[in-house]
Amino acid sequence: MKVAIIGSGHVGQALAQGLRRGGHGVTFGARTPDPAHPDEAGIAEAVAGADATILATPFAAASDVIAAAGGFAGCVLIDATNPLSVTEHGLGLTIGHTNSGAETIAAMAPSAHVFKTFNQTGFENMADARAYAARPVMFVAGDDPAGKALVLDLVESTGFEAVDAGPLRAARLLEPLAMLWIGLGRLGGFGPDFAVTLQRKV
Length: 202
Fold this sequence. Notes:
Layout: E1 2-6, H1 10-21, E2 25-30, E3 40-42, H2 43-48, E4 52-55, H3 62-68, E5 76-79, E6 84-87, E7 90-93, H4 101-108, E8 113-116, H5 123-127, E9 137-142, H6 145-157, E10 161-166, H7 171-187
Parallel strand pairs: 1-2, 1-4, 2-3, 4-5, 5-8, 9-10
Antiparallel strand pairs: 6-7, 8-9
């Protein structure tokens, strides 16, 4: 599968590692592609050649990226962002409970097929989810059935157990789940080397 990643920070680079290990081709979409990096292209060009695009920028940059990509019309767009900001109580979500970052992005890109996933754990786990005895879980929320099958397969190929979490509005639950991981892993002493798994009775 050909995947475009918009955002070349920790999350984007980690996802590229996991996806390439899973056999996928990755192109980074950049405002100004660096000729020294053959895996970079302009945002519109990268998206046009992709089966799926992952938004791995800060949430605040989403509107600019959507404009640069022509609204992602007809595209499978995976929202890996979290709407974070520092509040009087520390790091928190700027959107939640009655809306989500993913739904906000979908409203800004109404012709795209938007899915929420790759946001619920640290980038260290996205780079190699196979490092655990039990596969970490990665929930997927979205409304388009055909696109969801593709996204679930993509998530599975990176080593996660991909679980359908329902419609895109379930992102209202997945973004707080990301905050739980951040709170434990970055602020609560767990460190980055832990992951959430889904277990069933035997």
